[in-house]
Amino acid sequence: MPITQRAPAKINLGLHVLRERPDGDHDIETILHRIDWADTVTAAPAETLSLACSDPALPTDESNLCLQAAHRLADAFDVTEGAELHLEKQVPYGAGLGSGSSDAAATLQLLARLWDLNLPPEALHEIGGAIGADVPFFLQDAPAAYATGRGNVLSPLSDDGNDYRLPFPLLVAAPQVQIPTPWAYAQVSPRGTNRGDLRRIVSSNDLARWRSELTNDFEAPIAEATPAVAEIRTALHNTGAAYVSLSGSGGAVYGIFETRDAARAARDAVQIPNACAYLMPAPG
Fold it and tell me: pTM (2 decimals)?
């Protein structure tokens, strides 16, 4: 019988580009927080590995992170079985929401079950980290984490001893543009000193403090270079969102609201051509 796994998206609550690394990547710090907007990955037994996708624009060869994850897992543990994978896309890709990395993480978790590998978490994390910096985050259970290094060094984010969860309603709007990550990094001047403490800022849940101190280094240059992103930022600000930010290196932008009614009203008011919107209510 086929088995399924949800692949949730994420947003970044603040993102600092600290320095360029000798290998050409960058050291960053950010708070990653998963949201309910999700793809679904299905796996069924088969003799070989294959992938189908609901979005015909996405490749289904080994350039797709799902199939990369499947082959890496099979090679690492000498698996001779195959699997028929199906990816049901809901989350926009190339939007700073981590959907490709989340799909890869879901594939690793699915196939570990399908192939009865009974692996310790660190085994999947090692494979996931080789696929993409965000993959280890999606392999963990906690809803939020403080990420450093390339974004793959994770520390729990807690609130009074409990896992931190965003307590505010959230509206994410993603224009139909894709922001190439290497290009996005080229627009940013790294700065490793005099940066605010993201963990304290986010955990304060003080939206006035977020507006003045919680920044994403990609936001200004990406908005300046991409009119569709600037349009969404302006639209969300005009709805009265308490905090607005780019997610990752874009182009999805999210607004945080103090009440569910305000978030729902914003969803109805934001009329942006060629964009999709998603509302996540606060817990409770």
Answer: 0.94
CA 249 to chain centre: 10
**Residue 141: active-site member:** no
**190-240 residue pLDDT tens:** 999 999 999 999 999 999 999 999 999 999 999 999 999 999 999 999 999
Beta strands at 49-53 and 82-88: parallel, antiparallel or unpaired: parallel
Domain layout of the chain by residue ranges: 3-158, 165-280
Alpha carbon distance 102, 35 (integer Å): 11
- List 10, 39, 103, 217, catalytic entry: 10
Question: Sign (positive/negative) of CA torsion 188, 193, 199, 205?
Answer: negative
Domain 3-158 class in CATH: alpha beta
Residue 283: per-residue pLDDT? 65
- Superfamily of segment(s) 165-280: GHMP kinase, C-terminal domain (3.30.70.890)
Counting Cβ atoms within 10 Å, is residue 135 exposed (0-12), middle (13-18) or buried (19+)?
A: buried
What residues contact residue 169 under an 8 Å CB cut-off, 6+ apart?
Answer: 256, 257, 259, 260, 262, 263, 279, 280, 281, 282
- Active-site annotation holder among 36, 55, 89, 134: 134
165-280 has the same fold as 3-158: no
217 catalytic? Reply is no
